[in-house]
Amino acid sequence: MALTAVLGLIVALVGACPAAAKEEGAARVEWGACPEDVPADPPQLQCATVPVPLDYADPEGAQIEIMISRLASANPDKRRGVLLLNPGGPGGSGLGLSKLLVSQGIAQTVLDSYDLIGMDTRGVGHSTPVSCGFTTDQPYFGNIPPYAVDDAAVEAQATIARGVAEQCAAKDHDGHLSQLTTANYARDLDRIRAALGEEKASFLGYSYGTALGAAYASMFPDTTDRIVLDSNIGDTFLDHDGMRRYGRGMEETFQDFAKWAAARNDSYGLGSTPQEVRATYLRLAEQLDKTPALGIDGGLFRFSTFASLYNESSYGMAAQTWQSLLEPGTAPPQEKPAPGPVPTDNNWSVFLAVTCNDVEWPEDVQTYQRAAAEDRQSYPLYGGAAANIMPCAFWQSGPTEPPVQVSDQGPSNILVVQNQRDPVTPLRGAELINEKFGARSRLVSVDGSGHGAFVLGKNPCALNVTTNFLVNGTMPEQDVACAARTSG
User: In sequence order, which residues have a C-beta less than 8 Å from that of residue 167 and are 6 or more positions away?
Assistant: First the structure.
């Protein structure tokens, strides 16, 4: 999602006003201008770096720098503390997330209550970035494997996945990739809290950020304040089972697109009922498996449709693409990218490192072949992609410590927020994490579609419950089911 500019909103930055004396040995934060590529219009965002150990098993050894940003509260009388932010990934830059939330209408009471602290987590962007050296001319196209139509397709992808794992290992000259883990990210969060002079810190994380937030609340229950987990993976890590839930998420969310397209059949001609739209998708996918058109094969068609379900604003472009594929002579083919580095190299590299380092992945190709065959039947829209083999099967560093266990011991300070239909993090993930936290959490499920509920989803119930929790500490007495928002 693009970080849009904030128009007509004046929020003055105030000087550093720590809530407590800095902990012994904590780094000193010196705020200054942010890098030019960080959204700062109007220029109220400040940035700083915080040193952390590369390897927490050797805390006095090599240090790396984490860049953080601050959108400070302009109301010291109402300021509660800091709200640490994570946009997901792993691998997403979070330095400009506060500006996005402002542009999307986050409540002024939240802005008054907290300094919003964005960051590039270790390995990302301005925080000692890593690279596997991905280029546009190699057959690797991102973090989700392509749809596998049969066992041979899984076998072919295994060759590519092995090559990617070897490539990443060869590029890791300084050993940084092996230190990219959710546990280390959580440790970094607590170091940032201490450097800011705060006794406790609140946290808002989206998507993968929910895994990080769950780890943070589990590892540091005494120094975490109010935790919001939005669009949930279901644990502190993403494993093969978690990836396979993408297939379920697409099945559940596709129905909203199908209804939308059916209501506009006179314009796009994709089907007059949701069932007809689904049949058009399956027919197009199978057709493109055999004969790509406009530079799009069956795998890319399925992936692009999956991605369009993240937000209803993408439906129109998806429908237009389908229409072009149904009438191939009406649109020019997509141009191939020029040879060179992939612009998302850093994001892809971090995603793989964290995902592969957090937990053991199956190593035999047959496991993925069985899973893909099962999910092609159970989730025919996308299961053959989500269950396909990843470089994690051949990752050379592997987990350096067990994954963080979700702890139900600690304060009841965790709000789990979730759209009921989400293509990448389906409702089941929120139910799982809520069950694991027990009495520590409450689930706010939203009758809505897409990725991101609080602020981004525009549902008034979810906005009110979450804002009230962050500002006033009001935890619902029981789980909340928010009705669908009315149009307008």
Answer: 132, 133
pLDDT over threshold 80, residue 13: no
Task: Classify domain 46-128+179-238+403-482 at the CATH topology level.
Answer: Rossmann fold (3.40.50)
Q: What's the CA gap between 5 and 200, in Å, rounded? A: 30
As a dihedral over the C-alpha atoms of residue 195, residue 196, residue 199, residue 200, rounded to 10 degrees, the angle is -110
3-state secondary structure of 110: helix
Handedness of CA 348, 316, 418, 78 (dihedral sign): positive
Q: Where does the pLDDT of residue 305 fall: very low under 50, low under 70, confident under 90, or very high at 90 and above? A: very high
Per-residue pLDDT reduced to its tens digit, 250-297: 999 999 999 999 999 999 999 999 999 999 999 999 999 999 999 999
Q: How far apart are CA 459 and CA 481, in angstroms?
A: 12
321: nearest Cα among 378, 416, 257, 371: 257
And the tokens for 102? 């402002």
Q: Where does residue 153 rank: exposed (0-12), middle (13-18), buried (19+ CB within 10 A)? A: buried
What is the predicted pLDDT for the residue at 202? 98
- The neighbouring-strand residues paired with 206 are 230
- Residue 474 to residue 465: CA distance in whole angstroms: 8
What pLDDT, on the 0 to 100 scale, is given for residue 20?
40
| Angle, in degrees to the nearest 10, between helices 274-290 and 315-326 | 60
Q: What is the domain partition of the chain in residue ranges?
A: 46-128+179-238+403-482
Asked if 123 contacts 180 with a C-beta cutoff of 8 angstroms, the reply is: yes
Quote the DSSP letter at residue 140: -
Beta strands 46-53 and 63-71: pairing type? antiparallel
For residue 175, give the 3-state DSSP assignment.
coil
At residue 42, the pLDDT reads 65
Helix (H) or strand (E) holding 227: strand 224-230
Distance (Å, whole) CA 393 – CA 360: 8
Residue range 442-455: average pLDDT?
97
